[in-house]
Amino acid sequence: MHVRLARQTDAEAIRSIYNAEVLGSTATFDLVPRTPDEQVEWLAEHQGAYPAIVAVDEEGTVLGFGSLSVFRDRPAYATTVEDSVYVDSAHRGLGAGRTVLDELIDLATQHGFHCIMARIGGDNLASIALHEACGFKQAGVEREVGRKFSRWLDVAVLQRML
To answer: How far apart are alpha carbons 5 and 78 in whole angstroms?
Structure first.
């Protein structure tokens, strides 16, 4: 497996992984699956200092993806980014998430960011454990800030200083 910058040709694979989480989990608080056009737009927004990356196997199959995004729009937050990591359910436990998150940390460092924030659905223990294994520390919990599948959801806030 290796990781690379996402390409437009990866859009459908990324959309498939993401939409499975929209419809079946609390890994994202989105409620409506992305359309193909929305996915292309998302990829166009994730370039330069805020890249999208993919982990692919030797055949080029996208196993997972991740991105860096603007943390907040106020200028004082400019040196902080937020990460996202998603792995196809058929490929979990094989190191794709760790490979993606390690690369996002490297990219954030290369782009001169000072801090990475992760906001993770409180019941997503695997993602919390992954982030902690990569040096993130718990910064707090936002209680019942989301609602999905007819239940209230907490968000665990983790951060890593670079």
So the answer is: 22
- pLDDT tens string 15-62: 999 999 999 999 999 999 999 999 999 999 999 999 999 999 999 999
Beta carbons of 76 and 112 less than 8 angstroms apart? no
One-letter amino acid of 154: D
CA distance 6 to 84: 14
DSSP string, 86-132: EE-GGGTTSSHHHHHHHHHHHHHHHTT-SEEEEEEETT-HHHHHHHH
Question: Which residues contact residue 76 at a Cβ distance below 8 angstroms, ignoring those fewer than 6 apart?
Answer: none
**Does pTM surpass 0.70?**
yes
Alpha carbon distances (Å) from 10 to 27, 37, 40, 125: 20, 13, 9, 27
Question: Can you say how many angstroms the Cα of residue 61 is from the centroid of all Cα atoms in its chain?
Answer: 18
DSSP helix/strand/coil, 133: helix
Determine the Cα–Cα distance for residues 70 and 87; give it in Å rounded to an integer.
21
Cα(61)–Cα(81) distance, rounded to whole angstroms? Answer: 27
Query: If DSSP codes are grouped into helix, strand and coil, which group holds residue 45?
Result: helix
Q: What is the rounded distance in angstroms from the CA atom of residue 62 to the CA atom of residue 150?
A: 32
